[in-house]
Amino acid sequence: MTHNQKVRKAVVPVAGLGTRFLPVTKTIPKEMLPIVDKPSIQYIVEEAVCSGIEQIIFVNSSGKEAIEDHFDTNLQLDAILQKKKDPRLIEEMKKLSQMVQITTVRQKEPLGLGHAIYCAKNLIGNEPFAVLLGDDLVDAKVPCIQQLMQAHQAQNANVVALMEVPKDQTYLYGIADASAQKENPRAYDVRHFFEKPKIEDAPSNLAIIGRYVLSPKIFEILETTRPGKNGEIQLTDALNTLTSHEKVIGLQYEGLRFDAGDKIGFLEANLYFALKRPEFKDRLSKILRRLEL
Q1: Cα-flanking dihedrals φ and ψ of residue 268, to 5°?
Q2: Are the C-beta atoms of residues 138 and 253 closer than 8 Å to each other?
Q3: Which pLDDT band, with edges at 50, 70 and 90, does 72 fall under?
């Protein structure tokens, strides 16, 4: 790994079919489902941009064109907004289309997260890069991926985001076997990752969430990683190989995470982000109290 090389690019895999949200995802990409009035993917892109990322690489599949279109210019819509003389919306749409450089690459077969990241190899080149998974929304004072980028700079290491989960939920996540660093209690030296272990086999309750900063070495490893569970190329398997070549640390990030890939998590995120908005807070609080009765 090149020491202290700036992380400029982020890979955002968006090729999944979103079957957990059928029937709505039959025609609408899961990433375009709204959290209040913004699609969930916009929260991910904004997190990356606020962290200093200069280029977003969407790894998509057939039928996901709406994601890229969302961040593009829409001349017809711009003309309508000009006629309506709505400066706030005009400025908002302008900022959206100028937010960041976006590039798209296709994952032609659903071969897993590891394969999706490998699809971005030629666009990343020989530099470290970030990975943000769209299901994980994190509200934090310092954006989650920026926290990982800072740890990468400080320790010249690959970084994986970790959070504590209840012991009886460890089977739902990738779990880290790791030791806390003395100088930074939120950082862990990783020995191994276990993909969705049995509860009794979990080495800790430190679960991986969808934020990573990785060196380009991962592409070389992914190229020879054999399919694992469900016949997919697992990123977890490649990370375990990476630990024998380069330093890999886990970072227990600071912030509040929502699993927007789960229906309850999605509803929770909508309520949380709506209640943060002054124009919605009082009315929504009243509605929630009334519904509770």
Answers
A1: -60, -45
A2: yes
A3: confident
